[in-house]
Amino acid sequence: MGSPGGSDDSPVPPVSEPRAPDAGQMQVPPGNPLLLSLTLQELLARDAVQVELVPEKKGLFLKHVEYEVSSQRFKSCVYRRYNDFVVFHETLLHKFPYRMVPALPPKRMLGADREFIEARRRALKRFINLVARHPPFSEDTILKLFLSFSGPDVQNKLKESAQCLGDEFMNCRLAARAKDFLPADIQTQFAMSRELIRNIYNSFHKLRDRAERMVSRAIDNAADLLIFGKELSALGSDTTPLPSWASLNSSTWGSLKQALKGLSVEFALLADKAAQQGKQEENDVVEKLNLFLDLLQSYKDLCERHEKGVLHKHQRALHKYSLMKRQMVSAAVQSREPESMEQLESRIVQQENVIQTMELRSHFSLYCLHQETQLVHVYLPLTSHILGAFVNSQIQGHKEMSKVWNDLQPKLRCLFVGPHGAPAPPRPPQDGLSAH
């Protein structure tokens, strides 16, 4: 995870009154604009973005990693580096300070291995898909720019785009009237939603950890089965001659070795099936859990930005206004010069405007929070997708492995030789050797 969006050094939106947007910008939807009417399927259908590693190239001094980013929606394929994602992320935070902006994975450290690079590729893919499907982000020009601009310097293009317009508050027709759409008990609802989502996050975090362990066990099981089969094959291929006292059993040992030699094929197939199941569950279960966790983390970060950002600034503005009023009363008592009184009055009027704007921003922030909470709930049915993928993977995996085990069983008959050298069916272990 990258650093939380709620840090104190997060982008500070300019203090300004909302202005009338240009044609083509956000319009007031019919009905109550606070309410989202989206399904999970509609969200997922907005776009499917692939992020793949491009084979390493050498820079002037250090190797750098490049990604091929392809968008189904824009029918585009562009190349991006990690720093391009960083600038895009900063632009989103600047333009949408009151929305869930997913965190980026950490920057590459010295000595980063393939495992780190692959984990970061997966995280970047989750990030860009969450952004591409987010209602306000998906309709913004900076997303199209990032996913389709194939020129030489996408970072400057993104920065220029961010400088041209202010943040969402300044460009939304509803900003000045956001309070009118909020329920009366919005603060109570916010506190309840925050607690609920915190609990959901904790539970999904544990589910993801267990799913990762199951995938790891499947991959370890695959490696163990492969080595087990190779050792059986090595045993069957052993050419060490039998000592004379064991020559009576030479035919028995010879047939055993012949049977053992051929078992590596089945065990290699079992290993392959186990590895396939682990890989499938990593993609269909662990990655979807990580996607949902990234979304929930971005909601938690947004809540922190709301409290440490707009609410804190509002309190500071009120405190400053209070100090100015006291100064004015003190100046009136001391009968200061008219010019200094006029300057103080002008500063007080300016501060009143600042407070009014901060109040509007505070209500707009709550308005956006309410919508983002709804968006989290739209994603909740992803749980059934994850469970379905897990159950199907387990059924399919056990079914395929069971078939290989059943095919293997007839080949074991020659390993059980009767008293006159004839094959005998295997019997269950007895006399303390039974499995418990």
Automatic annotation (TrEMBL):
Pfam families: PX, Snx8_BAR_dom. Residues 1-28 are annotated as: Disordered. It is found in: Membrane. One of its GO terms (cellular component) is early endosome membrane. One of its GO terms (biological process) is protein transport. This is Sorting nexin 8. InterPro entries: AH/BAR_dom_sf (IPR027267), PX_dom (IPR001683), PX_dom_sf (IPR036871), SNX8/Mvp1 (IPR028662), SNX8/Mvp1_PX (IPR035704), Snx8_BAR_dom (IPR045734). SMART domains: PX. Keywords: Membrane, Protein transport, Transport. Residues 1-10 have a biased composition (Low complexity). It comes from the Eukaryota. It comes from Bos taurus. Belongs to the sorting nexin family. It is a peripheral membrane protein. Its main location: membrane. The keyword Plastid does not apply. Residues 45-153 form the PX domain.
